[in-house]
Write a structure and sequence with these properties.
The chain is an alpha/beta fold. It is built from six helices and 14 strands. Helices cover 23% and strands 37% of the residues. It is globular and about 50 Å long.
Length: 253
């Protein structure tokens, strides 16, 4: 199955923190976004790596899933989205792997989707989607700050209790390619690096005792040119903390 790691979604009640961090400091530029029943979403893209999506509830019964998440966890990582060319074939592979998808919605010909519950997906929701037609194209929100210098979204590090099965899910089922010379092996973490086209990388690291069998550990952004100032680093880590993230910043080589 050909799958693409498309974006990393963060739920937050305060969008301005996300705009300031991912736009103003990390150089993300507006991709697209829209209102959906119960929530608003918007995505920023970077010099390389997956997009970042910000989600915020807008009220009504359809907002319940996001309101429950924020009430239980506060702002934080919500899901990873993989785009596939044939969702029927993708769901068959997932079921053959022993996971039953939830929230399967195939009625909309432009966007067909299903989800893997975090208990089955090593501590994070995974969205599988088949997309046709152009994405929505409203103008960027007025609150989005002027983008800072460009950066690459080069790593999502995710810790899991069952490393072997997580590698099978993200690699064999979701199309990640093993990078045997990746930074996970070089840094001595004992992790496994999986990559997708466009500079998209997930590092899986074994860690016992995790709720739901896994948890996102940190994300890394690297300036394409130059260095982050001390002020930018301090501000970025403060905003990331508000968004429930641990952030690693790297200067250009």
């Amino acid at each position: 199955m050909t799958a693409i790691l498309d974006h990393f979604a963060i739920a937050t009640p305060a969008l301005t923190d996300g705009w300031d961090l991912f736009g103003g400091i990390l150089g993300g530029t507006w991709a697209f976004g829209d209102d959906s029943p119960g929530f608003w979403w918007g995505e920023l893209e970077f010099a390389a790596g997956p997009k970042v999506e910000l989600l915020t509830p807008t009220g009504g019964p359809d907002a319940a899933f996001l309101e429950r998440f924020l009430a239980a966890h506060g702002a934080g990582p919500h899901h990873l989205t993989f785009l596939v060319p044939d969702i029927g074939e993708a769901l068959a592979r997932i079921r053959a792997f022993g996971i039953e998808p939830v929230g399967v919605s195939l009625a909309n010909p432009d966007w067909r989707e299903a989800f893997l519950h975090p208990r089955a997906a090593h501590g994070i929701v995974i969205q599988i989607a088949e997309q046709h037609g152009p994405p929505p194209a409203p103008p960027p929100p007025r609150e989005l700050t002027e983008p800072g210098p460009p950066a690459r979204f080069g790593l999502i590090e995710h810790h899991v209790s069952d490393l072997e099965r997580a590698v099978q899910l993200f690699g064999d089922v979701l199309g990640g390619q093993h990078d045997v010379a990746g930074a996970g092996a070089a840094s001595g973490t004992g992790g496994t690096d999986l990559t997708w086209p466009g500079g998209k990388r997930i590092r899986l690291v074994r860690q016992d005792g995790l709720p739901l069998g896994g948890a996102l550990h940190h994300v890394r952004f690297t300036r394409t040119s130059g260095a982050f100032s001390a002020q930018e680093r301090d501000r970025a880590h403060l905003l990331a903390k508000r968004l429930g993230l641990t952030l690693e910043l790297a200067d250009s080589a």
